[in-house]
Design goal:
Distance between the termini: 39 Å
Mean pLDDT: 86
Radius of gyration: 16 Å
Structural class: alpha+beta
Strand order of the largest sheet: 1-2-3-7-6-5-4
Strand content: 25-35%
Order of helices and strands: HHEEEHEEEEH
Low-confidence stretches: 1-21
Oligomer: single chain
Length: 163
Amino acid sequence: MKTLLLLLLLPMISSGFAADTVPYFYLTPADAAKILGRNALLTLKTEKQGRDAVKYRCAFTAIESDPVSGETGNVFYNYEQYDSEAAAQKTYTGILDDNRRNGNIQLLNNTGDEGFFQSDAKNFQLIMVRKRDKIIRMKVNGVSSTTSLSALKETVNRIAATL
């Protein structure tokens, strides 16, 4: 049933790109499947020019629920290119400071200029990285028995290395 609903909603998803275009800084369907541990369907793809940044977003949803946890995982990906490095750093620092109030922050070394990982150990996993004037965020909601934290980290590292 969830698969049918996703297939019905797919034509209504907005996009600034041609259907067959996947920019180098985007999360791919293969990446999403590896992270979620199950095949996934693209459920969001947008491009938007903001006041001080161009913002690209995409999301994938697992086609089937995890039989162990019952979770239907999602992986969300944001790429933001700011007008300046200072604007990117201000945004990154603001989000980091807000998230520190919720605890469980682990600063990452050797990933972009600065980055962090955050998880509540059962519902979500988030990695945010800033490199020069760019920020990437990748978040898994609905962590399940098949979710791969190592695939999440590998994907973020690979994308960050291209920035």
